[in-house]
Fold:
Amino acid sequence: MSRIQAVKGMNDLLPGQIGHWHRVEAVLRDVAWRYGYQEIRTPVLEKTELFRQAIGDQTDIVEKEMYVFEDAGGVSLALRPEATASTVRAGNEHGLFHNRKQRLWYMGPMFRRERPQKGRYRQFHQFGIEAFGWPGPDVDAEVIRVGTRVWKELGVAGVKLHLNTLGSEASRTRYRDALRDYFTAHVDSLDGDSRRRLERNPLRILDSKVPETRQIVMQAPSMMDFLESGERENFDSLVDSLSRSGIEPVIDDRLVRGLDYYTGTVFEWVTDQLGSQDAVCAGGRYDGLVASRGGHPTPAVGFAMGLERLVELMSVQDIPADGGNLDVYVISMADQQTAVDIGEALRDAGYRVCEHCGGGKLSNSMKRADQSGARFAVVVGEEEQAEGSVQLKDLRGGRGQVRVPRESLVQTMREIG
Structure:
């Protein structure tokens, strides 16, 4: 019988890999809480129409990448490809936005049926924050500072912020018309997806990854030339606020993001250390999304970052993972219950402990202790069992081995450090 393997693009996280994940998740939770954001958890399964309406039916996600199926009642369902639409749905459904402001964060699995590649998978994990109810650039700046602090807390280097604005609906309409005229003059050189998007949403062409189309995009009109005076002042205010916080963005007037709900500010953090897929975190403002989904008009801004790509970046930069190693490995060559009792007492004191099982020679047991990564080995032989003592061996610090009374074990370990 052949062995069944994991579904393509959906990966196992093994014990040797999980340390980076633990560190990333702990830092993300801590940073979100320090900025006053509260956690929200939404289902991984939603009605397909939620994403078609919110994300846009001409985006790559909706056109090509969603996992969609019908349930027994004929309702079209989709595994969530992103979480902002789900967060807005939950907020509207439970009245979170009615005359209230909300700072929310989420973390969990998403699903997109795209081509698996380094740091990019069909089941992947995202962390995101969403701020609802604030219209001004001060909250845009706060959201960007949250992302910047994540890089700082994790020790990640070489990540650069790219920033743009998509303006208001009125200025975007003028810009769309200008783009449509420009790209129509080059229609024969556009890729197939871009030609299809030309009439309905030419801004999507700016996001094309096809090299030939990218060359044409480089000469396209700039959104900056179509902003109204107040929009330009807001954008300049955001840039100034970031600068005063020590954050110097790259102003990128070709940045539009891959989802149709974005309005106003958009941004990405990019790196050149992960190959062609350079974005590690992205977001922006989506002031119309809550109302378009049946809620009250509510300004909103947020971002999402892919954890797989972040973990990969940490590995490339040799950033250490959380220890995750044992503190103590307990070996009893006498009564196994003695090892259990010692292990439980050490856990009560806050240590991470593993008791050796299966018997065998002391030399083999000590090899297991060393392989476990534990700082200390505690050994109980017949003699120690009789007198109520243990042998404490420092496996990592070079302090050697000492016999101590069982009741002094915790104190001695703390003194050693």
User: Anything to note?
Assistant: Residues 137-154 form the longest helix (18 residues).
